[in-house]
Write a structure and sequence with these properties.
By secondary structure, the protein is of the alpha/beta class. The chain folds into three domains: about 425 residues, TIM Barrel; about 60 residues, Oligo-1,6-glucosidase, domain 2; about 60 residues, Immunoglobulin-like (Sandwich), CATH 2.60.40.1180. It is globular and about 80 Å long. The longest helix has 17 residues. 1-deoxynojirimycin (NOJ) binds next to loops. 1-deoxynojirimycin binds next to loops. InterPro entries: DUF3459, GH, GH13_cat_dom, O16G_dom_2. Keywords: Glycoprotein, Glycosidase, Hydrolase.
Length: about 600
């Protein structure tokens, strides 16, 4: 079966006035096939020894990213913030938080990245601000019904004294989605909505003033030369009118995604009938969000070059997610359905087919992602033996903890599959070192608001955010400068072998596997290729061809014989092979 990635001009999603090809240019834009490396600044490289990674730290490490062979970096937020949600609570969108450096540090970092041929994407957090933002302070100081309050989601409480919450919505991080404010005279006042922590009040995106301010913010960063934006919670900005009560199903992940059984959609490539979608929560994936992104698309078009918007939208099925990347909206959307798929060949095949087909209907490339700062690292997740909903995290008392050897083996095979797929791929810092989730963080070190708002029921996301190791033998594994012992989350004691310098030049290391895969991906144009499944293998095998490269992965336990005829040259194996058969949890690329 061959699936073309080219747009289907028959699709009902395409605006009638222009052909897809005119809207999307030549189809050769960099982001269609780019490998984008996510930097989580606070955990990447610390230049000043305060235990928190920073922009100068990133600048000093850019050469190592160029060597890795990535095309772009995406930086999680480094803007001014009280850091109640690790910077996803922004108090000033147009400045750098002092813990990360200054705007001048940003400019230097950008300049060096561009000189190395690395594009730079910054994180924009439009669904909510920090409660420290001047707009929110002005809203609190102003009266109910004022224009200042209308920038946020303030409502009167229910009941005779207004002391009941306006509705029953529950925060993604646990507890209610509402917080009551106190009036200047000390009496209890209105309530404001916060999908996340109470320090992250939601903006009112029905208000044109809010829309205009974000156009200014986009231009501020575009003027500085950024190549695009990763858009936080791009499925949450508009709420259903009337804010009706809603109780999510038990198997919904915290950001709105489902479990590993996630739906990919109808038949691949079909998105004609919105009524076939599963029920939409009143705060996720409302139709009104698309207008916002059309406006942003136009702002990006004011600028030279190929700038990009990438949606962080936990929306299923994929046929619905494809609406975020229609030709006049965003360029990319994270494929969390792919990330959520289990270690199961049939499920992966369905998700891959469904992804390519769903995105193709709107002329967009599929993206692929296995890890980020919100999910259990895939070197652990792929060997979990109990269900783990997104955002829950794992800790010492979680059920079904992973075997680290099996996890790493699967992660290397999974990455070898992902980097051979056509489209754009996201890599999260540290996965190129094979880092596992840090499970045994002391409770006292945990910082994710999820941990606190669920009364320690959910461990949250700290385990994938531990500062990454650069060198063996130094107190912070080289994360901090010489002599520094500070690290905002404690690093495990046994990471010497995982440190980047320990893996450099070591043939079978995970780092060298990534470098090799990225170089081959570029050499053979896999990002722009076409996927063709190879029939004849058992149900536990993934086998496909892309631009002349044959990829076979054994997700089962029984060794799989390699083809006696046909492609012969071994380009890459996710594990060293001693015989002409593919052992359990192993992938191979052949030419
Ligand atoms: C998604 C971000 O990736 C996550 O880290 C954050 O907590 C929420 N959005 C809220 O901004
Ligand atoms: Mg620092």
């Amino acid at each position: 079966m061959t699936i073309e990635t080219s747009p289907d001009p028959e699709t009902p999603e395409v605006p009638e006035t222009e052909a897809v090809s005119t809207l999307i240019g030549t189809g050769g834009e960099w982001w269609r096939s780019a490998v984008i490396y996510q930097i989580y600044p606070r955990s990447f490289s610390d230049s000043d020894g305060d235990g928190i990674g920073d922009l100068p730290g990133i600048t000093t490490r850019l050469d190592s990213l160029a060597e890795l062979g990535i095309d772009a970096i995406w930086l999680s937020p480094f803007m001014t913030s009280p850091q109640h949600d690790a910077g996803y609570d922004v108090a000033d969108y147009c400045d750098v938080d002092p813990i990360f450096g200054t705007l001048a540090d940003f400019d230097l970092m950008l300049e060096k990245a561009h000189a190395l041929g690395i594009r730079v994407i910054v994180d924009l957090v439009p669904n909510h601000t920090s409660w420290d933002h001047a707009w929110f302070k002005e809203a609190l100081a102003a009266a109910p019904g004022s224009p200042e309050r209308d920038r946020y989601m303030f409502r009167d409480g229910k009941g005779p004294n207004g002391d009941e919450m306006p509705n029953n919505w529950e925060s993604v991080f646990g507890g209610p989605m509402w917080e009551r404010v106190t009036n200047p005279d000390g009496t209890p006042g209105q309530w404001y909505l916060h999908i996340f922590d109470k320090s992250q009040p939601d903006l009112n995106w029905e208000n044109p003033w809010v829309r205009e301010r974000f156009h200014d913010i986009l231009r501020f960063w575009l003027d500085r030369g950024v190549d695009g934006f990763r858009v936080d919670v791009a499925h949450g900005m508009i709420k259903e009118a009337g804010l009706p009560d809603y109780t999510p199903p038990a198997d919904a992940g915290s950001m709105g995604g489902g479990t590993a059984d996630a739906l990919v959609g109808l038949e691949p490539g079909i998105d004609a009938d919105a009524s076939a979608d599963p029920p939409t929560p009143p705060y996720w994936a409302q139709d009104g969000v698309h207008d916002i992104f059309r406006g942003w698309h136009s702002v990006l078009e004011e600028y030279e070059g190929e700038r990009v918007l990438c949606a962080e939208a936990w929306v299923e099925p994929l046929t619905k997610l494809a609406r975020w990347v229609r030709p006049d909206e965003m360029q990319q959307a994270f494929n969390f359905t792919y990330l959520s798929a289990g270690w199961d060949a049939a499920e992966l095949r369905t998700v891959i087919d469904g992804s390519i087909a769903a995105f193709a209907t709107v002329g967009a490339p599929s993206t692929w992602v296995l890890s980020n700062h919100d999910v259990v690292r895939h070197a652990s997740r792929l060997a979990l033996e109990a269900e783990n909903l997104q955002g829950a995290g794992i800790g010492p008392n979680s059920p079904g903890l992973p075997d680290p050897v099996v996890g790493l083996r699967r992660a290397r095979a999974a990455t070898s599959i992902m980097l051979a797929l056509p489209g754009s791929a996201y890599v999260y810092q540290g996965e190129e070192l094979g880092l596992p989730e840090v499970i045994d963080l002391p409770d006292s070190a945990r910082q994710d608001p999820t941990w606190f708002r669920t009364d320690h029921e959910k461990y949250g996301r700290d385990g994938c955010r531990v500062p990454i190791p650069w060198e063996a033998g130094s107190p912070t594994y080289g994360f901090g400068p010489a002599g520094s012992t500070a690290s905002w989350l404690p690093q495990p004691g046994d990471w010497d072998e995982l440190a980047r310098a320990s893996q450099e030049g070591v043939a079978d290391s995970t780092l060298e596997l990534y470098k090799r895969a990225l170089a081959l991906r570029s050499l053979h144009g896999l990002g722009t290729g076409t996927l063709e499944w190879i029939p004849g293998y058992g149900p536990e095998v993934i086998a496909f061809r892309n631009n002349g490269v044959t990829v076979i992965a054994n997700l089962g336990q029984t060794p799989v014989e390699l083809p006696a005829e046909g492609p012969g040259e071994v380009l890459l194996t996710s594990e060293p092979l001693n015989e002409p058969a593919l052992p359990a949890d192993t992938a191979i690329w052949l030419l």
